[in-house]
Input
Amino acid sequence: MTLPDANTAAWTIKKTSPVVTGAAASAFVTTTTNVASGNVTGLGLTAGSVYEVAVFHADQHPRESNYELTLTGFSTTRTDCAPTCGDGIVTAGEECDLGAANNTGGYNGCNPDCTYGPFCGDSVVNGTEQCDDGVNIGGYSYCAPGCVWDARCGDGIVQKQYGETCDLGSQNGVTGSGCTATCGIPAICGDGVVEAPETCDDGVNDGSYGGCTPDCQHAPYCGRTRCARPENETRRRWIGICDLISMLF
Ligand SMILES: [Ca+2]
Ligand SMILES: [Ca+2]
Ligand SMILES: [Ca+2]
Ligand SMILES: [Ca+2]
Output
């Protein structure tokens, strides 16, 4: 630091302790008063440290106080702020950084290139996960937190609140298992109740005209409109009435 002629000013220099990078300067701890003009040395600055230095002067010129203060010796080398994978500090461009020795990947770990290793939420089933849809907030047939299945058809547990009437796990949908792939009791052809995929089930299912076939489909009937037979009508009489209705429509 070079100070102007002392005839025009009386100089006082104050200096802080070295400033830690990113922190505010501490209070001034060193005060040097009545510094002579010219090149100032002996401030006790350490190369590589950062200080805050304040220069005060008392104007001794009768009309004006123009002066020039010259600061020299600064480093002009640009600093490199690029991230360093392996330094244990997560910076821009890095997903993680556990240090070079620990960036070895693995479940819930950090890869050598500072990207995440497999984890619950990466939309890939890995590790001991049962599922991973990337969201994992649960719900019927969805993946729950911790990457485990929430209630679903196929877990071997009958959850009636979700409409299941059976659940035989891997046996769901297997012929003769007694449980469908959607966790429902299979339709019984011949029980007199029409259940999907049946289109007809009158409990007789003998394939007679206007009745139901043995595989619970409609037997042949006349007309474009199928009529539901009231209980008080005989089948033969009702078929005649139905045919008449069909022809009218
Ligand atoms: Ca880093
Ligand atoms: Ca996963
Ligand atoms: Ca279930
Ligand atoms: Ca049936």
Q: What stands out?
A: The first strand starts at residue 2 and ends at 3. The radius of gyration is 45 Å. The pocket of calcium ion (ligand 3) is lined by residues 151-153, 155, 157, 159, 164, 167, 183 (CB under 6 Å). The mean pLDDT is 82.
